[in-house]
Recover the amino acids of this structure.
């Protein structure tokens, strides 16, 4: 069971900061790894996010605020990292199609979907990750990424349509 | 009951994008980096004990600081005075050079006028009225 976070996170000691890292490391690392599709790079990025969190603790007032701040900073760092490194962008059409029909819980389908998500453009990719990994609403995503709700919704619809088309073409049945 | 299309869609994507555990030792590595940062900041602070951006720090320095400031001010004044002197010398030299050029031009003009006058005189001396008079060597024969 998770330990309670102090009401004012700015007051926490070093040992408590380690607990804070443990509490949110999976969230931060997962956003990064789903976005970058590189475990090593994702870990480095996630570590830097927590170092930045430590430097900014005094400005954060609650656990919810920390969570929101971590998502926002991770999202922006992911985009910065991608632009700085100019990682090769895999086109949606270049992702090989699955050979056999798949079901929603299928690990092969899951891997294929992660590849397809990683091939989306930067902003739509982040939106899909925040929507399905973090279970955020369009309004929450809009606030996190500082963009209009309508833009988030339209990115989401287009991304889902692209993913659906690719998966349906391969499996012959509607999964997405 | 068969799930709806929307439920299937959400389930497949949620399954694919579910959170993954961070690598083992992640927290320890973050804390290690934090400690390293802190040590670097400490060594940086030790290498410059007096904050250079503080105005008060300047006034609490020893007398040598004032002497250095005075020497700098004196050097600046000397530099400015020297610059003005050099500028004056250059201006006087330029004025002298211009006067010399004007004198040379006047001399050239006077010389050419003199030359013109001499050639006029020679022309008058060689006119036909003077040519009818017998030359000294012809009258002797």
């Amino acid at each position: 069971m998770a330990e309670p976070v102090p009401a004012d996170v700015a007051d926490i000691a070093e040992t408590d900061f380690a607990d804070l890292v443990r509490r949110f490391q999976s969230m931060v690392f997962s956003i990064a790894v789903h976005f970058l599709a590189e475990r090593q790079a994702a870990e480095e990025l996630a570590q830097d996010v927590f170092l930045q969190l430590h430097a900014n603790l005094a400005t954060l007032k609650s656990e919810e605020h920390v969570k929101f701040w971590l998502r926002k900073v991770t999202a922006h760092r992911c985009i910065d990292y991608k632009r700085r490194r100019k990682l090769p962008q895999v086109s949606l059409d270049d992702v090989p199609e699955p050979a056999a029909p798949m079901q929603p819980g299928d690990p092969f389908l899951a891997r294929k979907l992660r590849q397809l998500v990683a091939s989306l453009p930067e902003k739509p990719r982040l939106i899909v990750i925040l929507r399905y990994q973090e279970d955020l609403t369009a309004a929450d995503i809009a606030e996190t990424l500082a963009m209009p709700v309508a833009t988030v919704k339209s990115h989401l619809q287009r991304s889902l349509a692209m993913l659906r088309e690719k998966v349906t073409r391969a499996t012959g049945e509607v999964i997405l | 009951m068969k799930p709806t299309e929307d439920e299937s869609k959400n389930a497949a994507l949620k399954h694919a994008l579910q959170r993954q555990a961070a690598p083992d030792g992640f927290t320890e590595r973050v804390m290690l980096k934090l400690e390293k940062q802190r040590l670097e900041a400490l060594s940086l602070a030790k290498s410059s004990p007096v904050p250079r951006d503080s105005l008060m720090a300047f006034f609490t320095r020893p007398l040598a600081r004032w002497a250095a400031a005075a020497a700098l001010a004196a050097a600046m004044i000397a530099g400015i005075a020297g610059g003005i002197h050099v500028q004056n010398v250059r201006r006087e030299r330029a004025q002298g050079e211009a006067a010399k050029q004007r004198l040379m031009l006047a001399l050239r003009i006077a010389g050419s006028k003199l030359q013109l006058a001499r050639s006029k005189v020679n022309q008058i001396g060689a006119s036909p009225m003077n040519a009818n008079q017998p030359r000294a060597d012809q009258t002797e024969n």
Observations:
- The CA atoms of residues 16 and 22 of chain A lie 10 Å apart.
- The helical segments of chain A are 14-36, 39-56, 63-85, 107-118, 122-132, 138-145, 149-171.
- Chain A has a mean pLDDT of 84.
- Chain A has seven helices and no strands.
